[in-house]
Amino acid sequence: MSSTGIGARVQRKEDFRFITGKGHYTDDVNRHGQTHAAFLRSPHAHAEILSIDASAASAMPGVVAIFTGDDLAADKIGGLICGWMIHSKDGEPMKAGAHPALAQGKVRYVGDHVAVVIAETLSQARDALEKIVVDYKVLPATVATGDALKPGAPVVHDVAPDNAVYRWALGNEAETKDAFARAAHVTRMDIVNNRLIPNPMEPRAAVGDWDSGSDAFTLYTTSQNPHVARLVLSAFIGIAPEHKLRVIAPDVGGGFGSKIFIYAEETVCVWAAKKVGRPVKWTSDRTEAFLADAHGRDHVTHAEMALDAAGKILGLRVHTTANLGAYLSTFSSSVPTYLYAPLLSGQYNIPAIYCEVDGVYTNTAPVDAYRGAGRPEATFVIERMMEVAAREIGENPAEFRRKNFVTSFPHQTPVIMCYDAGDYGAALDKAMAMADTAGFATRKADSARKGLLRGLGFSAYIEACGIAPSAAVGSLGAGVGLWESAEVRVNPIGTVEILTGSHSHGQGHETTFAQLVSERLGISIDNVSIVHGDTDKVQMGMGTYGSRSGAVGMSAIVKALDKIEAKAKKVAGFVLEASADDIDFKDGKFTVRGTDKEIDFASVALQAYIAHKFNGQELEPGLKESAFWDPTNFTFPAGVHICELEIDPATGVTRIDRWTAVDDFGNVINPMIVEGQVHGGIAQGVGQALLEGAVYDASGQLVTASYMDYSMPRAGDLPSYDIGMTQTVCPSNPLGIKGCGEAGAIAAPPAVINAITDALGHEDIAMPATPLAVWRAIQKHMPRAAAE
Amino acid sequence: MATVSMSVNGKNVSRDIDPRTLLVDFLREDLRLTGTHVGCDTTQCGCCTVHVDGKAMKSCTLLAIGLEGAQITTIEGLAKGQELHPMQAAFREHHGLQCGFCTPGMIMAAVDMVNRKGNDLDDKTIREELEGNICRCTGYHNIVKAIHSGAEAMGAGK
Lengths: 788, 158
Description:
The complex is a heterodimer of chains A (788) and B (158). Helices cover 28% and strands 23% of the residues of chain A. In chain A, helix 9 packs parallel to helix 18 and helix 17 crosses helix 18. Chain A is an alpha+beta fold and 788 residues long. With 158 residues, chain B is α+β, with helices and mostly antiparallel strands. Chain B has two domains: 2-77, Ubiquitin-like (UB roll) (Roll); 86-156, Orthogonal Bundle (DNA polymerase, domain 1). Chain B is 34% helix and 16% strand. Chain B has five helices and five strands. In chain B, strands 2-1-5-3-4 form a five-stranded mixed sheet, sandwiched between helices. In chain B, helix 2 packs antiparallel against helix 5 (141-156) and helix 3 (103-117) crosses helix 5. The longest helix of chain B is centred in the last third of the chain and has 16 residues, at 141-156. Chain B starts with a strand and ends with a helix. Classes of the chains: A alpha+beta (788), B alpha+beta (158). At the A-B interface, helix 1 and helix 17 of A face helix 2, helix 3, helix 4 and helix 5 of B.
């Protein structure tokens, strides 16, 4: 391993600009003559719009234009789309209600977009917003997930008169029923997965620009996948054909899923730029982000697990109601279905699984993928069930898991996935050693002497990422393929530009992708630049989500580098007067096998461009190759996280004392960056378990719409993390890597709640386990808790 | 409009501004110092932290007009050319940033923390002192390490 190659802890190349204030985010973009947009948002969860009077607002100083849904409709601008078709178990396609970028006749959640004011300054736009008069007929609202399907619930979209988007199922119902008929023990649980608001620190932003000379648009936007944004804005929404629409996502300040989607504001800004003939800029404030960024999670689940007399799992039956909010966001339909139920097998041999999911509309913000997207929800179900089942039958939770682990690979689960490689027992052993679980009883006794409750919780998670084989996801309803592209441009002096369809918004691609090139071509990482986030520079790509940039994005680079090496060998062959078949390439040097003749990579690059040593009709000049990589399987990162915590029963305050994570990500490009991804994921998972929860009141007002009301994890809420790794190489991509971006957020919540319930001695606590919730749970079960 | 004059990163600046202009907008829009970010508008997240007369303050809730004659330091004013401030160097060395959006505010808050609390900071103190700065990417583990190390380096450089 070289000091900058694969596996090295290389400091990040991108950091210099970030730590000196020279990052370049969308809100830093100012275009000459730009105007500012402000959105009028619905104050009601559900209402008819009887009239909109913008006459007084239009007369306000600085106002350039005011647009409503009628203006979009008049220009034949299409609605926002959901790109994944789900069919109900009766074969019916999902019921997709219309989703105009600006409301047409009705608003369906607090924060829904009613009108846009475009003005010379932001202050003028905001001042004018207050002068728009909207006459609403307020309607009763459906808010809570569990209420949506009740008879008589207010109907969100007429196309779904019972509020069901779909009633979907996966698995074998009859076999699962048989398994339960044979069970010696059945564990049953009701489980709520709390609704979260993603909150990347950079709010969404957009600058739309239109060039009258070429009738071409440019959209600067906070996107994880600018090409997908261009595709949707072009092919479905109808802003402009793709060759007349450039989407640029510069530095993006965190995404966590929420910047995958194509939202109303970006659509309106780019469309309006032509309407007003000037650039249009919008930057979300934080409350707008709470109201209108797609939320995450929000499941209500009943689960049952059947065990035989020896404690082996026979079957799992799950029914989930998933809140999809007021409209179907871009990939929302896939999250509680194909990104959820196929992970319910966990790390375990479960012969029969049956899962039903009812996706429902409510008068709340749209819900879509948020870090983990379906897999945290599945992991929370299976890992809570494992813990509780072990407690019910009197087995050690770790050994109960071990007894049921999948131990031979490949392993076909009953719910689509074929696990390719893993060693779950090794991760459990290592995690238990690192966490010193053997010393837990002593530490618990010490805590008890101080009047504190100590608990230990396991989470043995698996996830499916590196999404995904295009044909496979296509057969499941995806509207796009999930390959990735790469282009390798070798310059005549031997420096290299990598153009990738992946997009970095914190993941460090400028470093890790350069490490791959450094390793392969034997050049310094300083001689490699990574180009991404601009549809005019980079060929079609699919972007970054689902922990896919390593497994899929880097595999595309490998494929292009293979072509570069093959071509370069031909050039070297001409220069060294040998057959390309006799050329070896190692450590940046081409050598003729069995001789001392050699030429370095940079010299070959120069020779490729000057093209003096070969016939340009037989071998094309230049050294540039591109590739599209379509994965052959998902990747299956897995591991064991162990949370040990202390609860003060007087206050209900939980303090995490130790966090141990042992993850198997296959081969690792940069351990420093991978550990950072794990840290951040755990923090979001602990946030879900202890602090975070979106709260709507009964009328559909979002009560948690600022950092004073929504509890973001702060440094003092979190522990330091003890991170370890095991390694089984992923067989389905050339680098053997699995993906690490979401693992922490998937693993953490059940580890926390399993530890809290271990400390409390009962299972009656929901997320977020705030001090008040824990204190109440202690009070409610005082006799049992006091007896501990 | 009203005129305000102050020193920003050692340079005297004077501008005619709308009296309701916030310091962060004055820095970002009037002076084009875009390293100072707005994460929440309500003085919760700390992305907008700058130094006003040597103390860390959140520029999203300060009016520029009230800072006549003040000495302002932003993230752009911390390094000496290509020579990083020790706290900046520590954030890079310890991977204390991912997306980079909260980072300028974190670094400005960290320097202020050292100025107030000294160079030998324990983890508990660092975590408590970061109450006003939110990071969504790193889980804070490496930020705490970076500040610990940066604080020591600032002491060694005295």
